Fold these 4 entries.
Entry 1:
Amino acid sequence: MLAFPNPFADKTHFFFNLDAAIAGGHLRIMDLNGRTVRHFDLGGAGTLQDLLPAASSAAGGTTMAMNYVEWDGTDSAGDHVANGVYFYEVRITDASGQEIRKRDKVVVMR
C-alpha cells in the first residue's frame, strides 16, 4: 500500500496490489483523533481503479493486479480537510474470508 504523492495538495492516490479475488473491503481516512473523515467501499462501483487490465476470476469477485483509489482531500461532506497528518487504513476480505489490514499516514499540505 502506498499513497502517492505524499505529501499532497490537490489529490493523492492509494496504490495496492490485488492478486486474488476479494469478497469486500474498504479504505478509511482518519484524523489524528481516529475520527473517520472519508470512507471508500472497495466493493462499490467506480471506487477501485485498475492500472492493469482485470483478470477473469472463475470464483467470481474482483481480481486485478495493480489498483488505486483517488482521494481529492475532501471529507464525507465534500469540504476540504485541514492541512495536517491523516491515517489511512485499507481492509480487504479475500474470497476465503481472511482479512488483510494495512495502515499508514498521508500528509495534506496546501
Entry 2:
Amino acid sequence: MGVAGQNTAGASVGFGFNPTTACTGTYAAGTMANGTYSVGTMGWVTSLGGSGTFVITACTNDRVAGTFEFVAEPNTPTGATGSVSVTSGVFDVPRSNQ
C-alpha cells in the first residue's frame, strides 16, 4: 500500500508499507515500510540505511489514516546529498484498490 503527496514548491514525500492482516499498527522503515522524499530529480530513501516509523491508525475499505516520520539517505545517482528528516507527517486519504 502506498501514500504520496506533493507541495506547490515541487517537493514530494511518500511511503509504502506491507500491511499485516489487521492493517493498523506501527511499521518500521526498512522492514515493513519504506519512505521517500524528492525535490526535482534528486531523491532520498529509507531503504539505503534510513530509519523511521509509519503508524496506521485507521484502515477501512474507504480510507487510510495515520502519522509518519523518517530519516532518508541520499540516492546518490540522483544527485542528492546528506540525510533528510521528514517529521510530524499526518495523512487521512481515500483508499483505492487499484
Entry 3:
Amino acid sequence: MNFEVLPTGTMLVTLTGKLDLKAALEIDQPFMEQVTSHTAVIVDMTAVDFLASMGLRTLVLAAKRIHAKLGRLVLLNPREDVLAVLIASGVDTLLPVFHDRAAAEERVKGL
C-alpha cells in the first residue's frame, strides 16, 4: 500500500495484491488513518487481484467517514474480476469507479 498526496491535495492510495481477510486486517488501521484525514481520495485498484468482503468493508467504512466530512472517495482501474465483485455487492453504487485518473480527480474535487 502506498500513499501519495497529489499537487491538487488529493490523496492517491495504491493498493496491491489480495484484499482478503488477512490483508484487510493488516491495512485497515493505516488505511483509515491516512485516507480519513483527507476529503478527496482516489484508491488505485489496478494491482488488486482479489477482493473479499473484508476488503469491501474497509473501502466502504473509509468512504462513509470521508463522506461525513463532505468529501469523496472513488476507485480507479479495478480489474475485471474485482469490478465484478464491486458490482455484485452493490458497492459500485456507493464508490464510483473510474478508468481514467483525470476523471477520478475531477470527481473527488467536485468538478
Entry 4:
Amino acid sequence: MNRLYVVESTPTVTGSMADHRLPLKPSAIEECATALARGLGVQLTGAAPSSSLADKQKWLGAVIRDLQQHRGRSLVVGRRPTAGGGSRAWRTP
C-alpha cells in the first residue's frame, strides 16, 4: 500500500491527491523538514528546533511512525523553493 504525505504552503495538484496534507506558512516548511529528519534520527547541525510546530506534533509523529514502520521502503522528497530550484530526496535506511 502506498501513502502520500504532503507539506506545502500553497495548494497543489499533488497536495489534493495526498492521503495526508499539512498546510503550513512558507516560513515553517524548512522547520517541518528538520523536525521530520530529527524524528527519524538524522543527526543535524545548526539551530535547535523551535516550538512553532507544537500544534503539528501529532501529524509529524504519525508520519515519523509510518516511515519507521516502513524503513527501507520509503522515499522522502523535498524541494527548496528558491530561484535556482533544486530538490532533495532520501530513502529511509
